[in-house]
């Protein structure tokens, strides 16, 4: 479960940065777990679909999963009023993953759009995920 919590905590940005060496405190892990749980309940998403999303399997993406991505990004403080708060992302993830790496991924992915805010959140996630795959290959 701990691996799932850490991975989902960084589903938005850290999916695009090397996750090796990221270490979260127990308090951070608990906070992220609580936020993910809130968004799962709020959106009616099932946990299995969220796990697949985290793994890059988009086969179970529906509107609930898209809105989970939006909810989670907002609860982390990374998205406000439909726009990425780059300063908040850098403050949170820069020390963990490297500020330059985070900024580079943001430059490629923050402009992703969709037909609504939930769709845009998923498109950002896909971009971040794709950047992570490229960086690890």
Mean pLDDT: 78
- Can you identify the CATH class? Mainly Alpha
Low-confidence stretches: 1-21
**What order do the helices and strands follow?**
HHHHEEHHH
Task: Write the CATH architecture name.
Answer: Orthogonal Bundle
Tell how many strands the DSSP assignment holds.
2
3D shape: globular
Signal peptide: 1-18
GO molecular function, one term: odorant binding
Keywords: Secreted, Signal
InterPro entries: PBP/GOBP, PBP_GOBP_sf
Quick gist of this model?
The protein is 66% helix and 3% strand.
Structural features, described:
- With 137 residues, the chain is an all-alpha fold.
- The protein has a single domain (2-14, 23-136), classed as Pheromone/general odorant binding protein domain (Recoverin, domain 1, Orthogonal Bundle).
- The protein is 66% helix and 3% strand.
- It has helices at 2-9, 26-43, 47-54, 63-75, 86-97, 99-109, 117-136; strands spanning 79-80, 83-84.
- Strands 1-2 form a two-stranded antiparallel sheet.
- Strand 1 (79-80) and strand 2 (83-84) form a beta hairpin.
- Helix 1 crosses helix 2.
- The chain is globular.
- Mean pLDDT is 78; it is low at 1-21.
List keywords for this structure.
137 residues; Recoverin, domain 1; 7 helices; single chain; mainly alpha
Describe the protein's topology:
Layout: H1 2-9, H2 26-43, H3 47-54, H4 63-75, E1 79-80, E2 83-84, H5 86-97, H6 99-109, H7 117-136
Helix pairs in contact: 1-2, 2-4, 4-7, 5-6, 6-7
